[in-house]
Amino acid sequence: MSSSENKKRKIAIIGGGLAGLSSAMKIAEMSLEKKDIIVQLFSIVPVKRSHSVCAQGGINAANKTTGDSTYQHFDDTVYGGDFLANQGPIKKMCDSAPDIIDLFDRMGVPFNRTAEGRIDRRRFGGTLHPRTAYAGATTGQQLLYALDEQVRRYEAEGLVEKYEGWEYLSATFDTNGACCGIIAQNLVTMEIQAFPVDALIIATGGPGSVYGRSTNSVSNNGLAAASLYKQGAKYANGEFIQVHPTAIGGDDKLRLMSESARGEGGRVWVYGDASKTWIDTEGIERPCGETGKPWYFLEEKYPAYGNLVPRDIATREIFKIVYELKLGVNGQPFVFLDVSHISREKGREFLDRKLKGILEIYEKFKGVDPHEVPMEIFPAVHYSMGGLWVDDKTHMTNLTGVFAAGEADYQYHGANRLGANSLLSCVFTGLHVAGPEAVKFARSREKAAWELPTEIFEADVKKEKDFINKLMNLSGTENPRLIHAELGNIMTENVTIVRNNEALRKTDEKIQELQKRFWNITVPDKGNWANQSIRYAHQLYYMLHLARVIVLGALQRNESRGAHYKPDFPNTNIDFLKTTIATYNKDNDSPIISYEEIDTSLIPPRARDYTKKTVSAAGAISN
Amino acid sequence: MNTNNTMTTETQKTVKFRIKRQITPDSEAYWEDFEIPWKASLNIITLLMAQHTHPVTSLGHKSTPASYEANCLEEVCGSCTMVVNGKVQQACTALVDKLEQPISIEPMSKFPVIRDLMVDRKRMFESLKWIKGWNPVDNTAPLGEGPRISPSEQEKAYNFSRCMTCGCCLESCPQWSADEGFIGPQAIAQSVLFNIHPTGKSLEDERIKGLIDNGLNVCGNAQNCAAVCPKEVDLIGAISQANWQATKYMAKQILGNGH
Ligand SMILES: Cc1cc2nc3c(=O)[nH]c(=O)nc-3n(C[C@H](O)[C@H](O)[C@H](O)COP(=O)(O)OP(=O)(O)OC[C@H]3O[C@@H](n4cnc5c(N)ncnc54)[C@H](O)[C@@H]3O)c2cc1C
Ligand code: SF4
Ligand code: SF4
Ligand code: FES
């Protein structure tokens, strides 16, 4: 780097998924003329391998063809999230969605096409409108590649510097308390280094690893968000973890079978048993289908939305079928997700054009062809609605100069995210909020970070080095991988679909026990070259902290809302129509939970009911 | 009694595998053998996870966890390419029950080893710069829809666009090596992808020049690459398309110079 490059302002973006790359693209574009800002893009994996490539089903935007409107999209999102989100930002996101699709279209994303050559749409959960644009069943991969390409173009022009194979560890703050740098570790040389920066965007995705196994990628370890939380950042709505209804099991990962399978006509069923009953919304007792015949329970229970009820609802229904009604396939914890009729009626090729990506995954891992045979699926931890608290308008966290975008932030999805809205929120926040606001902030700073005395940075580098040395020198009897497995198991058992306070209390105690045992581990590799064991242990340390944020948020929220369901408190409670805020208390090494008001000024809260088409109080027809 | 017996033999069933270790880029490589209890649905990544949990060889020697790359665990990110039982493939979809034991797991041979199963594939990403692997959009302003694309064009583009930069094709190509001239089939297919798009087309000449300068003509059409691509990218189609575009380009150069 030349010295004039050194003297430019820098914005560090941590994470190269859709949120990080769209921020990078926007910032580079804003800096194109004056070339006054350089993006430093950090990622554990090469950005092209970020978790966003896993996204299958598609991205939402209202479109003119189906009587849809951006207002309807807004209403579906707010209602689907059980009103637990500030409405202003959601409205802006839905309003800008059509332009976002156009932009991706211009960048060359091979969206599936209609006969006329326009972007095709399919229906997703929680709406009655086909508003999801898609590229086969690998939409996330295609959107990510388009951004990766544009960012590479800016990289070739010197406006973006990539630090791939680096892990962010913590932020450095100047004497005014504003972020002025980051500390990161090179995952090959293991060197720990400070990077002075004038703004920081955290786009590190979700914390799936806290649950051990989930549909998330390995790099979604939650360290960055948890580390900021320990540095004073507010973490919001941690307890709102989405459990996706349809995934397949595995020892290493739970693999998603996208909602798009149902969007394309896939049906969920089990064999019926007329000797068992369920009670409908009018209080009438009904048989569980016909004995020995397929029972399409979602279609029967939710005539308006059928198989495309929102995820929280589908997940709870499948859970009930398996554990309460004991109607799982062959008594096992599975139900069928069936697309074989589509293949029979419209042909294999038709199905492949729409869903090949996921059908391949199923066939590869299960050895059975889902074109012919129904898939066996069960719910899996999938997405975090919660994340770093950010200001509505700027996406700045409560730490000055630190912004958050994408799954790492907490906005937009409330208590339950609608399918195909996440990719949208990632791009919207990077492109329209965090990206431009970080530029504004970086330009407005009196002193550039490179002008600050190096001592500030050196002190923080030393702190991180000391911490890692401390971990390296532990020589106890515990195994970090086994502690992680214990954490994952108890979180999955007690903090997913059904929650109760006794179990949550026990879980919190267990995590604290694991935190103690953590200090009795041995890191099995003491080397200083591409040492993955030390990184794993370090990540585990932060996962344990984040787990407590999730559990205590759940414990204290005595109501049921969206993905958070407590049988002892089965309804929503207006007193809890508030954002949960966790802040780190150094004195007892624990989170403090408080609540913040939510802006519901545009659409008054109403009870969710997906058995019927309803009318929103604001006048939008349907849902 | 009988059932009990079968159950014990079932639970004692193991998986034997060998990992080629190399602790630094310059150190000697060596093999280590491992054995873990068998379970249903194991794949190479689950074996490596088990090796990380108990890094002890089958002879009982304490070792270290073998470094490797993996992220999505469902064959879409391209991270986990390795040579398993002699065949280059994604470790996450290599199912143990379909592999002969002892399973041998080694890093790709064409890329510099960083450590153990981790190799340096930076050149694959660099090559995307040489071919200007992007559609040059004006900016991110709301300028309306993109160009109309027919379903058949979309399907063609989508096939190339599924390339996950895994490197299987380069590992298998007899003409490609990390430090020599030939750019390799992955980047060739990507140039063809961008040359399909109405906006990307504007850079076709520069892209083709990038390929010619990087040894396009070296490809001997051995088709090893297409046979190993986990995403069924039409590499053969791409290579012939690129060659045709190169011929066109050169003809234009000659005519242009002649004037
Ligand atoms: C299987 C699956 C299917 C999905 N399908 C859909 C869908 O169809 N539609 C939809 O809208 N949503 C979908 N989602 C959700 C959506 O994919 C994610 O929410 C979204 O991709 C998150 O993007 P992101 O940019 O926030 O982060 P990610 O894509 O998760 O990227 C995180 C980045 O941060 C980096 N990183 C993390 N920690 C650090 C650190 N400490 N230092 C440096 N770098 C770090 C990683 O390397 C990576 O680059 C799906 C999710 C899954 C799991
Ligand atoms: S056809 Fe043969 S020589 Fe050409 S790129 Fe493929 S493997 Fe290499
Ligand atoms: S073309 Fe196929 S084998 Fe080659 S890098 Fe791309 S996905 Fe891998
Ligand atoms: S881990 Fe992503 S391809 Fe194997």
Structure characterization notes:
The complex is a heterodimer of chains A (623) and B (259). Helices cover 36% and strands 19% of the residues of chain A. Chain A is an alpha+beta fold. Chain A has 3 domains: 11-243 and 393-452, FAD/NAD(P)-binding domain (3-Layer(bba) Sandwich), CATH 3.50.50.60; 259-381, Succinate dehydrogenase/fumarate reductase flavoprotein, catalytic domain (Flavocytochrome C3, Chain A, domain 1, Alpha-Beta Complex), CATH 3.90.700.10; 460-586, Methane Monooxygenase Hydroxylase, Chain G, domain 1. In chain A, helix 14 runs antiparallel to helix 15 (501-518). Chain B folds into 2 domains: 9-119, Ubiquitin-like (UB roll) (Roll), CATH 3.10.20; 122-135 and 149-255, Orthogonal Bundle (Fumarate Reductase Iron-sulfur Protein, Chain B, domain 2). Residues 1-8 of chain B have low confidence and may be disordered. Chain B is elongated and about 70 Å long. Helices cover 37% and strands 13% of the residues of chain B. In chain B, helix 4 (151-161) packs antiparallel against helix 6, helix 6 (185-196) packs across helix 9 (235-258) and helix 7 packs across helix 9 (235-258). At the A-B interface, helix 2, helix 4, helix 5, helix 11 and helix 16 of A face helix 2, helix 3 and helix 4 of B. The complex binds flavin-adenine dinucleotide, iron/sulfur cluster (2 copies) and FE2/S2 (inorganic) cluster. The site of flavin-adenine dinucleotide has 46 residues of chain A, from helix 2, strand 2, helix 5, strand 7 and helix 6.
